[in-house]
């Protein structure tokens, strides 16, 4: 039967540069691995699952009226040997045709007929699709590599040869012949620290540094002309690049061009650790096992995307969040005409993918080991559409570089706030709450109260007298009294003030960031102090609630208001680095309230300023005479093509600064439609936080911990430990990308915990 719809309009080869969603349905995670495959629209190249699954191909047709589809399905080819783990020693280009058998069948969804597969146009389209790049490529090596740069100790290296060096040599102290490090100062060969996957070592290279202060060394058997050698600076405690490595080696009679690499590099050992996160030993623990089922689905690493995976897994561990987006999946996804760019759609898609259990099953593509009794891990879902949508337009989250999980959590929640679904419910408000700070002058005892809306707590690590740290102590530090320098506006005393902050309302979900970064010798360093949870990880915060004001107390005059609206994200980032609020405000004020990096650079240059710790004098900051924006500025923005409403809104957001208003408009394009539809002066009924509570007792149950593994603040790997119900039991599960494993202890989290997610237990 001839199909009248099989025309150039509805079926053609993809134009150059077209994004082709030929791996999975854009509305759910059904993929070409499904028994019925997926249907790829040959007009717009979006895909939908078939009638054997959720019929999103029909949804696509209902929205677009595109009738011609190519069904794509694949099955794994038989392999004589199990696939080898990826290593940097031998990286081969993957060819899916070598691993999978693909099946292509064109058909018309209107006529319900198959189209002749021998048709020349069908053949041309299939050939074009085979040559088109994959929508999601991942490189596990790149996920762990960091940009290595020289340091001053490498660039100013002074060499004083004192040893004869041989590539076949051994440690001068213990005779070990592997994991050897060559001191580039004097030429001494010493064994390194014991490394995962890299052989043994007794730490004699570190001892040599401690006794001589010779800080720069190179891993001897990582040397070759074709790869970057492992150079390490013990002074910086970081991997470094040595642009003069050839000359430095020649001092000891070594010719880099003639050397061959025989041991794994540090990056390769990190990769091995990522591929096998101590699973060998953990599986030997009593009760440890791979987990499968609802809410136990892994996410595949897209290349440095572990920060995203860990945060998303933590959010979807919260019942109210997961249930909302499961409902969204049922009511919104099939009707949305822009699924590939709609954040609501992709969150609904993730809810179904992570929580339904349909995709949480052992991989049938991978053999876990030579022992057939061992079950392989999951394949994991690929959240690349979510990453593209959230990262669009963001300087960092749009890249493939590693990012800070806490910063991403705050940014994702801001995106959720602007991407409301048909219910109108702002799910980001589940983390919002109000605090009240009481400031009392120590000179006149007068007090002032101020309220702040916030979405998280950034807490220091608190140590007890015996040196131990507990998470509950860190929580309680938020409501403890603090003394500060203060000049009273009322009595003019410089005796200082006492401040204390308490909760006015409790959030449904409390997000806590633990400050694991410190500045040492002008460098940001990771703090690995162990923080114990203690007990059942349920915390009573009832006494955190603000109490009645003291009877008869005198109040300080109201603080003069300023039009300065501090950059919230920059303030969060700077305070997380350990800078005080006063220092942050001085820096942001000096750098145009722009971003954390500019402010941090300014701070490093002005740390010795005598007034750096004094409160910013807001009275000296010029204020607009009214809340009205400049009509000239509005006209300038309108000349650029923006509407009057959008121009006014942007100018109000940026304190009447035209240049910043332009930047704001281009970075908030998704919000412009809502601005146009808003009525000036109207109150948003949905601004009421339906999740906030003032009820006591306020019991919080720890649901998730996002952990950062690695000694450097610039690299490493994020994993999430999440409390889930498995077989009727409350257990802790480790989510390490696509790997999900039950753990019997949270000892691993004590020195790596970074973000805690707590859920309020409502009666």
Automatic annotation (TrEMBL):
It catalyses: Thiol-dependent hydrolysis of ester, thioester, amide, peptide and isopeptide bonds formed by the C-terminal Gly of ubiquitin (a 76-residue protein attached to proteins as an intracellular targeting signal). The active site is at residues 306, 717. PROSITE patterns: UBA, USP_1, USP_2, USP_3, ZF_UBP. InterPro entries: Papain-like_cys_pep_sf (IPR038765), Peptidase_C19 (IPR050164), Peptidase_C19_UCH (IPR001394), UBA (IPR015940), UBA-like_sf (IPR009060), Ubiquitinyl_hydrolase (IPR016652), UBP13_Znf-UBP_var (IPR041432), USP (IPR028889). It comes from the Eukaryota. Residues 297-761 form the USP domain. Its EC number is 3.4.19.12. Belongs to the peptidase C19 family. This is Ubiquitin carboxyl-terminal hydrolase. The gene is ubp14.
